[in-house]
Amino acid sequence: MSPTNSSIQLEIVSVQENLFSGKTAFVVVPGVDGELGIYPKHSPLLTQIKPGTLKFRAVESDKDSYFFVAGGFLEVQPDVVTVLADVAIRGEDLDEERAEGARKQAEEVLLNKKGDKISIASAQAELSYALAELSTIRKINNRG
Predict the structure, then answer these.
(1) Please, which residues have CB within 8 angstroms of residue 84's CB and are 6 or more apart in sequence?
(2) Which residues of 57-73 are buried (b: 16+ CB within 10 A; e: fewer)?
(3) Which of 11, 47, 130, 139 could form a disulfide with 103 if both were Cys (CB 3.0 to 4.6 A apart)?
(4) For the chain, what are the domain ranges?
(5) ∠ at Cα 98 (94, 102), nearest 5°?
(6) Residue 113, pLDDT score
(7) In angstroms, what is the C-alpha Rg of the chain?
(8) What percent of the chain has pLDDT over 70?
(9) What is the pLDDT of residue 41?
């Protein structure tokens, strides 16, 4: 099978930079309605991204690659997947200590109900973000 038929172009772009551009065998993205597995020749799709793990395998690699993504959109065409993320961090750049600290701080605000409704809503969002980031780190560390 030719590379065109067995691969799909992936573009990962954040507000700050273009993070990845290349041919992949598959892409898994955390959509708002659940995890989406995308293979070459997938039907067109446009959806929002929720905080979580983006996983793919580059054609020239035998290992999966991971990113943490939060917010943004996923556009799928039969031969191209574009991830326009508010936040996208390469797996190897994630900081477990920072994410764990953010989780603890958000939980403390929520447990003590410190602050106004906006502060509590902000703490809930930060907790969700930190938990998703920690989940990505765990997936990377368990990949054998």
Answers:
(1) 13, 72, 73, 74, 75
(2) bbeeeeebbbbbbbbbe
(3) 130
(4) 3-92, 94-141
(5) 120
(6) 77
(7) 17
(8) 94
(9) 93
Which residue shows structure tokens 């809503």?
A: 121
Tokens of 63: 């290992």
Q: What is the mean pLDDT of each run of 10 residues along the chain (144 residues)?
A: 72 94 97 94 95 95 94 95 96 92 90 78 89 92 63
Under CATH, which number does the domain 3-92 receive? Answer: 2.60.15.10
Alpha carbons within 13 angstroms on the beta-carbon side of residue 75 total: 8
CA contacts within 13 A on the Cβ side of 42: 25
| Terminal CA-CA length for the chain | 29
Q: Are 48 and 119 in contact (CB under 8 A)?
A: no
